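Q: Second attempt. The first request was missing the SMILES, so the protein and zinc ion are both included now.
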Amino acid sequence: MKWMSKTFTFVVIPDANQSVQQFRLPIMILIVVPAIIALLAVSAIVFFSLYSKHSSFNNDLQAQLSASAAKYEQQLTEKEGSIADLQTDLVQLSEQAETMERKMAEINELEAELKQIVGINPDSSPASSSKIVVEEGGQGGQELPLPDGASDSLASEAMKQYSSIGERLEAMKPNLEETKQAVLDYQKMLNVTPTIWPADSRKVTSLFGIRQDPFTGRATYHNGVDIGGRTGDPVYAAAEGVIILSEKDGTLGNNVMINHGRGIRTRYSHLSKRLADVGDKVTKGQLIGEMGSTGRSTGPHLHYEVIVNGGHVNPIPYIKADREEP
Ligand SMILES: [Zn+2]
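A: Got both inputs this time. The predicted holo structure:
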């Protein structure tokens, strides 16, 4: 290590007129100082390179963070929009439930009317509740946002309304079945009851009861009604039944009798033509003969009788006045 103790002498000549200056430096310094500078330089390069890498990583991270934040912001806005839509849907559902309840009340009222028509006592169905009904019309006021938790209570209210509607619909079913059966029975009864005009003509030429006999002029009992018309006009069965008589008689001429059951019979006389035989089943309104003037008659007409439990009754109250077509 002898060379380390060696020195280098630097001569500096500043100017021709000035004296020469000499510096003597040990060789060690000449090696160590540049080495330290080089080391520092390398360190600085490494440091700056690391720093710049780190800072670009930081920038990336920040960019990602702000992108995420923007995304979340957008999602939040969308969610808020969805919640508002759901709340609106809930309100609409509640309104629909109210409409359904209203319609159910209407159905209940219709059913009660139907029951009255067919002669069943309308029971104490919960149709006429004292509920306030909201109707179409002017509205107004300040529109405030829904308070927190309003959606929950709206949802549970709508659920309650719908489950109550379900229960009531279920309860209505047996009632409606009963009414349906009653209507069917009523219809069956109506089919075998002589409620229609037995001819197209509505011209009554002689009423039921005491009258002056057209042949003798004496007071007699007329056991039916006479409906005036033309020979050949259709004569209809006033109700469903079975033909129990189809004959030609000196007084009643060509006549047909129908048994409708329940003790009710109808008879059609003075026909020009009989179009039904004993044993034939006929439906209400079926053609059974043609109008005429056979037997004891002054002109073409239908002598129509209604017999209940063997006795003659006035046919007019049986005929529905509002019925246009036979
Ligand atoms: Zn008569």
